[in-house]
C-alpha cells in the first residue's frame, strides 16, 4: 500500500463559537476518493474549508507528505483545487478568460489542456460568454473545467454534482476517474452517490464527541 499523502489528525473546528466537529482523523494516498456524508449542518463544508485553509482549525494537524501544511500555506494552496458552493468565477470575464486567469494565478499557462477542458465540459460554444450571463449549471461546468486544468493533486469539491445535467455529471465522473487513475486525491462533500466505484466514506455527525456518541 502506498504511504499516505494527506494525513489529518485530531482536527477540530469551531464556527460561530460552536464546535462543528472534533477529533477527526483520516489518511489518504494516491488515487483515493473520500466522500463526506452527513445531514445538513453536520460540518462537511466546514471540513472542506478547514482543509483548504479558508476556515481556521481549533486543534489538530493537516499534513501533506509528512509535513504540517500550516508551515507553508502558499505551497499548500498550490496543491489543492477548490470547488465551493459559490464557484469563485469572475462574472465580467468570459468563460475562456476565467480559465486562463485562474491558470495564470496559479503561475501557469493552460496551453493545449485548455481546449481539452473546454471540450470535456462542453464549453466551446460558451467560451466567449461572460460568466454572469450563464445558467447555474453552465457556471458549475466552467468551475469544474478550472479544477481539471489546475493539475492540483488534491481536489476539494463541495456538492460537485449540484446543478449539473446528466451529460455534465458523466463528464465530471470521467474527469474524477482520470484524476484518481493518475494518482490524484479527491475529497467530495455529497448528499448523493458520486457514481465512482469504491469511495472511502466519512460520515460527519457534527457536534461534540459526546453528541456524536449519542
Ligand atoms: N459562517 C458561519 N458562521 C457560523 N456558523 C456557521 C457558518 N457556516 C456554517 N456554520 C455552522 O456550522 C455548522 C456546519 O455547517 P456546514 O456548512 O459545514 O455543514 P454541511 O454539512 O456542509 O451542511 P449542508 O449539508 O447543509 O451543506 C452548522 O451548524 C452551521 O450552522
How much of the polypeptide forms β-strand, as a percent range?
15-25%
Helix content: 25-40%
CATH topology of the domain at 31-53 and 76-201, anyone? Rossmann fold
CATH superfamily of the domain at 31-53 and 76-201: P-loop containing nucleotide triphosphate hydrolases
Distance between the termini: 34 Å
From the spread of the alpha carbons, the general shape counts as: globular
What's the level 1 CATH class of the domain at 31-53 and 76-201?
Alpha Beta
How confident is the prediction overall: mean pLDDT? 91
The main sheet orders its strands as 6-7-8-3-9
Structure in a nutshell:
Keywords: ATP-binding, Cytochrome c-type biogenesis, Membrane, Nucleotide-binding, Translocase, Transport. With 214 residues, the chain is α/β, with parallel strands linked by helices.
Describe this protein's structure.
- The chain has 214 residues and is α/β, with parallel strands linked by helices.
- The chain has a domain at 31-53 and 76-201: Rossmann fold, CATH 3.40.50.300.
- 34% of the residues lie in helices and 24% in strands.
- The chain is built from seven helices and nine strands, in the order E-E-E-H-E-E-H-E-H-H-H-E-H-E-E-H.
- It has helices at 44-52, 73-79, 95-105, 112-120, 136-150, 166-181, 209-213, and strands at residues 6-15, 18-28, 33-37, 59-64, 67-68, 80-83, 154-158, 185-189, 200-203.
- The strands form two sheets. The protein has a five-stranded parallel β-sheet, with helices on both faces. It has a four-stranded antiparallel β-sheet with strand order 2-1-4-5, covered by helices on one side.
- Strand 7 (154-158), helix 6 (166-181) and strand 8 (185-189) form a beta-alpha-beta unit.
- Helix 3 (95-105) packs parallel to helix 5 (136-150), helix 4 (112-120) packs antiparallel against helix 5 (136-150) and helix 5 (136-150) packs parallel to helix 6.
- It is globular.
- The structure holds adenosine-5'-triphosphate (ATP).
- Residues 15-16, 20, 38, 40-46, 189 line the site of adenosine-5'-triphosphate.
Amino acid at each position: 500500500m502506498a504511504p499516505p499523502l494527506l494525513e489529518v489528525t485530531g482536527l477540530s473546528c469551531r464556527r460561530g463559537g460552536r464546535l462543528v466537529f472534533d477529533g477527526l482523523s483520516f489518511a489518504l494516498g494516491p488515487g483515493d476518493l473520500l466522500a463526506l456524508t452527513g445531514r445538513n449542518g453536520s460540518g462537511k463544508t466546514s471540513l472542506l474549508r478547514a482543509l483548504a485553509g479558508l476556515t481556521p482549525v481549533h486543534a489538530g494537524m493537516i499534513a501533506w507528505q509528512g509535513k504540517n501544511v500550516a508551515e507553508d500555506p502558499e505551497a499548500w494552496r498550490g496543491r489543492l483545487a477548490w470547488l465551493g458552493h459559490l464557484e469563485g468565477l469572475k462574472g465580467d470575464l468570459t468563460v475562456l478568460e476565467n480559465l486562463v486567469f485562474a491558470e495564470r494565478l496559479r503561475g501557469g499557462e493552460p496551453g493545449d489542456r485548455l481546449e481539452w477542458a473546454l471540450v470535456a465540459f462542453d464549453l466551446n460554444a460558451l467560451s466567449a460568454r461572460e460568466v454572469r450571463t450563464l445558467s447555474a449549471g453552465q457556471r458549475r461546468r466552467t468551475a469544474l473545467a478550472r479544477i481539471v486544468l489546475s493539475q492540483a493533486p488534491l481536489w476539494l469539491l463541495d456538492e460537485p454534482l449540484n446543478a449539473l445535467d446528466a451529460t455534465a455529471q458523466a463528464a465530471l465522473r470521467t474527469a474524477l476517474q482520470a484524476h484518481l487513475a493518475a494518482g490524484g486525491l479527491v475529497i467530495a462533500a455529497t448528499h448523493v452517490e458520486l457514481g465512482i466505484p469504491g469511495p472511502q466514506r466519512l460520515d460527519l455527525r457534527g457536534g461534540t464527541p459526546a453528541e456524536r456518541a449519542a
